Amino acid sequence: MSNSRTAWLQIHLCVFLWGFTAILGRLITLPALPLVLWRMLAVGLVLLLLARVWRGILRLSMRHLLAFLGVGVLVALHWLTFYAAVKLANASVAATCMALIPVSLCFIEPLVTGRPFVRRELLLGVLVLPGVALVVGGTPQDMNTGIVVAILSAVLAALFTAFNKRLIQRTDALSATALEMLGGGVFVLLLALLLAWLPFAPWEAGALLPEQQDLLTPPAGRDLLWLGVLAVACTLLPFALSLVALRQLSAYASALAVNLEPLYAILLAILILGEQRELGLTFYLGAGIILAVVLVYPVLLKGNHPDSGQSLPRSP
Question: What is the pTM of this model?
């Protein structure tokens, strides 16, 4: 088998594994804050066991080190809102809204990195709006809060992706990921302690904070198993595989594959969770429009985009 074909299979395996993140968020009974806290700390501490990660960190200036820790806060906020959306709506809804990340980048990336706006991107952003409207119309009314939170999560993902794009050029990717995981984990811990200290229950707190379980109590049973799968099989393994695959694939090919992640997640949610019973045909029509726009995006802009020769960092 050729190196390029092997790399293509590797990147699709990565996308398939990433598609499980929404499913695991539904299977894990922990609310969003402890789920994100244990995931980030587990990944960050494992990465710190690697000598390569320490070498990369020690080469960073204090300014860049603090910058990556700050980006970790954005990653944490993205994951908090993503898993809250999974619990407030379901995995299919949360995954569909993640397809809005490329559209959000059309507007956010020029502001963060200074690259020029591309008019075709603005058109694609407009085309995705009917899909969003159909998604809202095809879900039960009690999932509307989850949809809003999921859209916010997509915007946060675009925001930290743009900052990573600006910072990652001369930094070891594993070192940057370790810093972001640890920075985000510490932020989530402080946020959880603050919310638990408040004399009143935060809005929709049940999706974020445990009602009776101590936040610092380690997960046990199936939650521990699924968290291990989430940290290793859906975070560390695909991240390492994607780095290997990118040595053989173009940025365009990898971006096209990664854009299939919401589709994998929706199919897995149907097969594993049976979520098609919760959603109407209108939802799937809207999801189809959003996914079509996302898949057409790299085709229309291939060779004409200011960053067409570079790969965009993805959510770890």
Answer: 0.86
Report the amino acid identity of residue 47. Answer: L
Chain centroid offset of residue 246 CA: 19
Buried/exposed 261-300: b ≥16 CB within 10 Å, e otherwise: bbbbbbebbbeebebeebbeeebbebbbbbbebbeebbee
What percent of the chain is modeled with pLDDT above 70?
83
Q: In a 3-state reduction of DSSP, which class is residue 48?
A: coil
- Phi and psi (nearest 5°) for 306? -55, -25
Give the pLDDT band (50/70/90) at residue 308.
Answer: very low
Mean pLDDT of 55-80: 93
Residue type for 197, please? W
* Location of structure tokens 């080190």: 65
Q: What is the CA radius of gyration of the chain?
A: 19
Domain borders along the chain are: 3-301
* Closest C-alpha among 44, 126, 42, 28 to residue 82: 28
Question: Backbone phi, then psi, for 242, in 5-degree steps?
Answer: -65, -35
